[in-house]
Write a structure and sequence with these properties.
heterodimer, A: about 400 residues, alpha+beta, six-stranded antiparallel β-sheet, five-stranded antiparallel β-sheet, about 35% helix, flat, B: mainly alpha, disordered C terminus
Chain lengths: ~400, ~450
């Protein structure tokens, strides 16, 4: 039906006044509704469980943590140099309702060695844990991470405890905010938006694939591909040729008809390609930022390079201390033997053997050195050794004492 | 900084040597600047082969001293100066009218953004390459480790019981990349990683430059600029530019082999044929895929070209014969020591893995390794397939698709599916055919534009 249009000035002004009144009423009712919503949201927002408040923090159980202290508005944690993982476990009372506390929010900063944070939870003290993994920035600056838990199947019922776990020995963590609260629609946008920008850093083991960013739960590459398909379909619909075209006109030429959709399709694809590439450039910049701060532009020694930690500076130190003709026994809990073999060549590097002139230990919690003795899981594997260099407790070089 | 400067000097020297190497061959379409690019690319592949012959003959790596490099470079420079003074410039058939500058405001904007993105990539790659020690696994475990051993020992250890047998690492891998890096270190007099990384970095830059140069003759400078950008902006490619792996090199050699091989078929340009042959030989000595995948694909393509009377039998025999002859010492050595051409012999048995099709979709459309290559592949194949069928691009398209089919076949129809499932090699293998495919799309765009321009008068 065609719309009714006022034809006279009177009718027009009457309609306008009527509209104004209607508008006024609508505005008032909507404002009230909005106010109620805001108040509801505010009330809900106050229904939070802060894990970093002093009372709750007293009860926290720690593993793999060398020191933990509260200063001002933050909690400072130093993970242990010898443990592969660090964790904080918070017991939750019976009053904790996961249905109403379905968003986890943490504001923290970490160093370069830590690629991700894990949130674990379980229902009974002895039950199995469920977990979510959260990628984190490694630029040493504060970032807020929100993790929606409402879609997690096991985030229901009575949860007895939650744990925060980090995979990095000897790393500093500073937490400013640590809480559970009800999820709001703005949180979901925040979550997706922040997740989109997390920089993907390649695993130092391989350069076989790049996972790529995620946008609104979809891989960004796929999201752009869908946008592309939608735009092409829309364009084809708008510019669809009518019939086969009159003879003698450009429309009659099949090449021309193909070009009509192909050229815009190609340039659209180019624009989307460049969009993806801009996002990729963001990853590069984030990677460089972390590398500059902790490795290239720092006076600290040893320097840290992502998950490899201070391995490069340590191996350089070993190369300076061990003559090229000597053999080295290499102990590490991580698969770093090929790296040691390469960087220390022509020195002969053998995996986990004490029957050589020098022993190198790098991040191996099972191995310790005391009173000239090297012990592995409590068993002495080498004695008459002396420490000739290293970085603290988890990276050191031992030489056999032939006296 | 000294190492970086040293590495740059070596690359310059190699470029001039390569220039000298292809100087005797005349060309109707390859100009001086393109000859320089090809000289650099070819020397990356051929010099290790010559080094291998020398080492096999019992020479030491030190024989190929800086004096050899300097003498070769001076000779190449002299030839270049001669060419430059005599204006040895030739043209090439152009499929599209030359676009001297971007044609619209949007075009200018896109060129600007793309240029900034390219600069960002070069900066990122250079920082990663020059500022950090070797980082990734295969370089540590094989390519650079082997190079370091070869540099330290200085000769070819042929005792299979020795830890330094064929340089150590993984002896069944071809020695090309490692030998080249060992030679760079020999020239510099020390193991200098900042110089060694030039081997990867230059391959990345050459891939861009060769595609840009080769396409610009056909479709104009600005259009080819976009296509060259598409190649080097594949995210995985960027990380391979500094990783000291060999996949990017192999991709460069295969692409070069196809571009100039196709050029030879169309124009009978002798230099193009020789360059294609050199690229093919280089690929055979870079990774096992060269012998196992690329050589059969190229031979099948040649047989078809012979069948279509596009390639004289004599030329084909010379081409294939020379390639086989040049790589024969390496192949004989491998047979002699029982070294395999595949990573795992028991994975070579026939078995179909339909799940692989889902994995391929995931790799091309969901992951971030290749930007939007998946949609580009679908759209361009749909659009250009008729052009490929109708024109002389058919043989090029056939070769590219045959290689793709062979790559996918290896994963879908054998136990190598495991490498697709764990994502260890599928992305890297696909990276091998992508530059050649994008070049094909670029050529097709020019061809299409050309057909558009020459629509029969009755249709206008």
């Amino acid at each position: 039906m065609p719309p009714v249009v006022s034809t006279t000035i009177d009718q027009f002004s009457f309609n306008m006044n009527k509209k104004r009144v209607l508008f006024h009423h609508r505005f008032t009712s909507r404002a009230l509704l909005f106010l109620c919503l805001v108040m509801f949201v505010r009330n809900e927002a106050h229904a939070q469980t802060r894990l970093d408040d002093p009372e709750r923090f007293v009860k926290v159980a720690v593993t793999g943590i060398a020191s933990i202290k509260r200063t001002g508005d933050s909690v400072q944690i130093q993970t242990s140099p010898t443990a592969p993982q660090a964790s904080l476990t918070f017991p939750l009372g019976s009053g904790f309702d996961p249905q109403k506390r379905n968003l986890f929010e943490i504001t923290m900063r970490t160093g370069p060695r830590m690629p991700a944070l894990f949130l674990f939870w379980r229902h009974a003290q002895s039950g199995p844990y469920d977990s979510v993994r959260q990628l984190i920035y490694r630029d040493g600056e504060f970032h807020t991470y929100v993790i929606p838990l409402d879609e997690e199947q096991s985030w229901r019922g009575a949860i007895s405890e939650v744990a925060l776990v980090w995979d990095a020995p000897n790393e500093a963590i500073e937490i400013k905010k640590l809480e559970f609260r009800p999820i709001q629609w703005t949180d979901r946008i925040r979550y997706h938006w922040s997740r989109f920008w997390f920089p993907a850093v390649l695993n130092p083991a391989t350069v076989n694939l790049i996972r790529g960013p995620v946008f609104m739960g979809l891989p960004f590459a796929l999201a752009l591909a869908l946008v592309f398909v939608a735009l092409v379909l829309l364009f084809c619909f708008v510019r669809r040729p009518v019939g086969r075209g009159k003879a003698g006109t450009a429309d009659a030429d099949p090449l021309h008809r193909r070009r009509v959709w192909f050229q815009p399709a190609f340039w659209t694809l180019m624009a989307l390609w460049v969009t993806y590439d801009l996002r990729e450039a963001h990853d590069h910049i984030q990677t460089l930022k972390s590398e500059f701060r902790f490795y290239l532009n720092t006076s600290d020694y040893p320097r840290h390079l992502l998950e490899l930690d201070d391995l490069y500076d340590f191996l350089e130190l070993v190369a300076q201390a061990v003559p090229p003709s000597k053999g080295i026994g290499f102990y590490s809990a991580r698969p770093l033997l090929p790296k040691a073999r390469y960087f220390l060549f022509p020195r002969r590097v053998v995996n986990r053997t004490p029957d050589v002139d020098f022993i190198v230990v790098f991040q191996d919690p099972a191995v310790s050195f005391q009173d000239g003795k090297l012990t592995e899981k409590g068993k002495v594997v080498g004695d008459r050794l002396k420490r000739v260099g290293g970085f603290g407790e988890n990276a050191f070089l031992l030489e056999k004492n032939h006296d | 900084m000294t190492d970086i400067f040293g590495g740059a000097l070596i690359v310059l020297g190699l470029t001039l040597i390569g220039y000298g190497l292809i100087w005797p061959f005349s060309s109707t379409g390859i100009r001086t600047s393109e000859r320089l690019l090809l000289g650099a690319a070819i020397s990356l592949g051929l010099i290790p082969l010559f080094l291998f012959y020398g080492l096999l003959a019992g020479w030491r790596l030190g024989i190929f001293s800086p004096w050899v490099l300097t003498a070769g470079a001076v000779l190449g420079f002299a030839l270049w100066v001669t060419d430059f003074r005599h204006g040895r410039q030739q043209g090439a058939e152009r499929l599209m009218p030359p676009a001297r500058s971007p044609q619209s405001r949007y075009h200018v904007l896109l060129v600007g953004i793309v240029t900034i993105l390219l600069i960002e990539k070069v900066f990122f790659v250079a920082i990663q390459g020059f500022s950090f020690p070797t980082y990734f696994w295969d370089a540590i475990d094989n390519w650079n480790y082997r190079a370091k051993v070869l540099y330290a020992t200085g000769y070819l250890d042929l005792d299979p019981r020795s830890e330094t047998f064929l340089g150590g690492g993984k002896p069944h891998y071809p020695m090309g990349p490692s030998l080249f890096r060992a030679w760079m270190a020999t020239l510099l007099g020390r193991w200098a990683e900042k110089a060694i990384v030039f081997h990867s970095l230059v391959a990345y830059l050459l891939l861009f430059a060769i595609i840009w140069k080769a396409l610009s003759k056909k479709i104009g400078r600005w259009h080819s600029f976009f296509f060259a950008y598409l190649v080097v902006s594949l995210p995985l490619m960027i990380h391979h530019a500094y990783s000291s792996y060999a996949d990017l090199l192999l991709s460069l050699f295969f692409t070069g082999c196809l571009i100039y091989g196709h050029e030879y078929l169309i124009t009978r340009d002798r230099l193009s044929g020789i360059v294609s042959l050199f690229f093919l030989v280089s690929s055979l000595f870079t990774k096992n895929e060269g012998v196992v995948l690329i050589l059969p694909v190229v031979i099948i393509a040649m047989l078809i070209a012979i069948g279509q009377r596009r390639l004289p039998l004599g030329s084909a025999c010379f081409y294939a014969g020379a390639a086989v002859f040049l790589i024969l010492p390496w192949v004989i050595l491998k047979f002699h020591f029982g070294l395999s051409f595949t990573p795992n012999e028991e994975k070579s048995i026939f078995e179909f893995h339909p799940n692989g099709l889902v994995k391929i979709f995931e790799v091309l459309f969901r992951q971030g390794s290749f930007n939007l290559f998946g949609p580009l592949f679908i759209v361009s194949t749909l659009f250009y397939s008729t052009i490929w069928w109708r024109t002389e691009l058919r043989i090029l398209a056939f070769t590219v698709f045959l290689l793709l089919g062979v790559i996918l076949g290896v994963f879908l129809f054998s136990g190598n599916y495991a490498f697709m499932e764990n994502q260890m090699t599928i992305n890297r293998s696909l990276m091998l055919f992508m530059p050649a495919y994008i070049y094909l799309v670029g050529l097709s765009a020019g061809k299409h534009q050309n057909e558009e321009l020459t629509v029969p008068p009755g249709n206008n």
